[in-house]
Amino acid sequence: MFLRRPLSLIAASAAVLVIVYEVIQIATGELYQKALDNMDGTTLIELGILVLLGVYTLRNRSDLHAVSFTLVAGLSFIFIYEAIYKWSFFLAPFVKEMPPHEVREFIIQSGIALTILTGFAVGDFRLTKWTFIWLGAFVALYAFWLLVGFPQVLEERTFYFDRVIPIDFSYEVNYVINRATKLFMYLAYLTLFPPLRATRTAKSSQRERRAQPENEAAPGIVATQSTHD
Asked: SS3 of 225, please?
């Protein structure tokens, strides 16, 4: 299949390389990518898996279409979390005023995140009960994170708000909370793609249609010919 779909092949190959590279980096103790402003390596692994899922579940579309909307989903996932994360430092307009340069970045991030709507417009993405389940888990855990003062992984004992729930977390717990919120959002995004079972069924139907003889007459025509004989 991939030989007839060069863009999907390139995207899938790049995704596999990124996953393997990041697994090796994490195994050797390099969790953060300094070249990407200390992006967590697990985020890149998640993106790699999303690309593989996207080009596979959208393989009934054209090659360019499948890769394009997989890219849309990946960018939207990254920037919707970044937009929420940025807003959380201010909780504007309820707690703090967001500086103009932060507002500008927030608007850009939100705009990129909203490109996911194009996938719904063309029928590639859809909401399921699991989408809402994972989004609900994200909202619940993220709200808890804010209530304990929004502590950051790389900033020891730094709280951005008065703590409603006065709990001190270790570095490990802070890291797990941070990663878990992003994981829940990520799982919600994965549910937007067509289910694997549906794509297999559609592919089987296409093979069956191709297998039918091209010169097979329609039933009405056969009946007419029998009458004349």
From this structure: helix
**Where are any strands of DSSP class E within the chain?**
32-33, 39-40
CA 61 to CA 5: how far, in whole Å? 11
DSSP conformation class of 62: -
- C-alpha distance from residue 38 to each of 28, 41, 69, 102, 216 (Å): 16, 9, 27, 19, 62
Give the residue carrying structure tokens 């709200």: 143
Which sequence spans correspond to the domains of the chain?
2-203
Strand ranges inside 34-156, DSSP E? 39-40
Q: Report the 10 Å Cβ neighbour count for 61.
A: 17
DSSP 8-state assignment for residue 2: G
Peptide bond into 151 cis (omega under 30): no
pLDDT of residue 160: 74
Q: Is the pLDDT of residue 166 over 50?
A: yes
Q: Is there a contact between 153 and 174 (Cβ–Cβ < 8 Å)?
A: yes
